[in-house]
Amino acid sequence: MKVELKGLTKKYPSRNKNEKKDVVAVSNFDYTIPDGALVGLLGPSGCGKSTMLNMISGLQKPTEGRIFFGDTDVTDISPENRGVGLVFQNYALYPHLTARQNILFPLQNLKGKDKLSKEAMEEKMHEAAKLVQIERYLDRKPSELSGGQQQRVAIARALVKTPKVLLLDEPLSNLDARLRLQTREEIRRIQRETKVTTVFVTHDQDEAMSISDYIVVMKEGVIQQTGKPQDVYDSPANLFVAKFLGIPPINVFDGEVKDGKIYIGNDPVLNVKNVKEGKVYVTVRPEGFIPSADGALKCGLKSLEIMGRDVSIISENPASLSESIRSIVDADIKLDPALSEVRFNIKPHKLFIFDAETEERIYFETV
Ligand code: ADP
Ligand code: MG
Q1: Where in the chain is the domain with CATH 3.40.50.300?
Q2: What is the Å distance from ligand 1's center to 48 Cα?
Q3: What whole-number distance in Å separates Cα of residue 353 and Cα of residue 346?
Q4: Which residue's CA lies nearest to atom 1 of ligand 1?
Q5: How far is the CA of 37 from the centre of ligand 1 (A)?
Q6: What is the C-alpha separation between 104 and 347, in angstroms, rounded?
Q7: How far away, in angstroms, is 146 Cα from ligand 2 center?
Q8: How far is the CA of 26 from the centre of ligand 1 (A)?
Q9: Which atom of ligand 1 is closest in space to residue 14's alpha carbon?
Q10: Residue with CA at minimum distance from ligand 1 atom 25
Q11: Residue located nearest, by CA, to atom 18 of ligand 1
């Protein structure tokens, strides 16, 4: 099911009595989720992700804008009648019911022509339990299940009515690190098997990047960029997106474009053409540095972290906006840790520049 989100805005009355202005949680959100895709809605806490998800589910009404499932305008349809499956961070299972009863619950509430026979309900329940691999635990209550198992039950419950759209709001946040990895792979598998159009909300860029067909990056209620995870990583539209994606994070420097060169501080690091001159932020991905005796960027060497497959070079430079510059290079590249200086050449496609005022990307051609 294709989902079209057209000009969605959500304003809340301010909670602060002295402050009359509304809180704009989501502003003019325009995006189409392709049929069968898994879209990661990504941004820092408070940027409007849950509000967005709640508007898709019908739990909240948009102040402006329309929502379409396929060709149907569902904006005024109640959550129960939209055909959405919801999974939240805190599982929200009924504690007094077994896993089996929790999964059956949405089916038992079907009325009229949708009403199912006992056998049909059992069959659907088993199908969902099998999909999330919890058949062995069906007779346990939530308190007798681990966090990961509870979240699987919650996902089975969301899937049992074969929803048109599956909505997951930070579903992994309550799980420990190992389980988080395992469960996110599991969600990806389940989504591929069912092909249900899915929106996955998270503040964790790594999670969104690894699981999503497409990501939507939000900041303060406004979409910053959309696209395939790799494309957004490889070509961020503004400084916020560049900084938000990537571990370790991108390195940010004060810089300038003049006389056909990009400067980091006083070091000319790249020859360019067809580019606007002026003060910029120069950013370089950790994998964008090539240590070289005649490198253009001169840095003070602080330390080396050997991590098997690759080496992290921790260095410093007065133009860097953070205390340390982190670059990751192949372990075959040998550096003497006793050296005080390390020089780098920069891979052009790993370097982005942003206007110092607007923080928007400035595009350039290399020469
Ligand atoms: P996220 O899920 O990305 O953390 P939310 O959608 O929960 O963000 O919140 C977006 C903004 O809207 C925040 O500033 C939050 O404080 C505000 N907000 C959320 N719900 C309400 C509400 N019911 N009343 C007033 N403000 C709200
Ligand atoms: Mg939220």
Answers
A1: 3-240
A2: 6
A3: 13
A4: 46
A5: 26
A6: 56
A7: 23
A8: 9
A9: 25
A10: 12
A11: 25
- What's the pTM value of the predicted model, to 2 decimals? 0.94
Number of neighbours of residue 74 by Cβ within 10 angstroms: 23
Cα 249 to averaged position of ligand 1 atoms, centre (Å)? 26
In tens digits, the chain (367 residues) has pLDDT values of 999 999 999 999 887 777 778 999 999 999 999 999 999 999 999 999 999 999 999 999 999 999 999 999 999 999 989 999 999 988 789 999 999 999 999 999 888 888 999 999 999 999 999 998 999 999 999 999 998 899 999 999 999 999 999 999 999 988 888 888 988 998 999 999 999 999 999 999 999 999 999 999 999 999 999 999 999 999 999 999 999 999 999 999 999 999 999 999 999 999 999 999 999 999 999 999 999 999 999 999 999 998 888 999 999 999 999 999 999 999 888 888 889 999 999 999 999 999 999 999 999 999 9
CATH of domain 3-240: 3.40.50.300
**Which residue has the CA at smallest separation from atom 10 of ligand 1?**
48
CA atoms of 91 and 108, how far apart (whole Å): 20
* CA-based max dimension of the chain: 78
Cα-to-chain-centroid distance, residue 105: 31
- Residue pointed to by tokens 């059992």: 122
For the chain, first and last CA: distance in Å? 46
- Atom 7 of ligand 1 has which residue's CA nearest to it? 50
Ligand closest in space to the Cα of 90? 2
Residue ranges around ligand 1 (CB below 6 Å): 12, 15, 23, 25, 43, 45-51
Strand extents, DSSP E, 209-322:
214-219, 222-227, 251-258, 261-264, 267-273, 278-284, 289-291, 297-307, 310-316
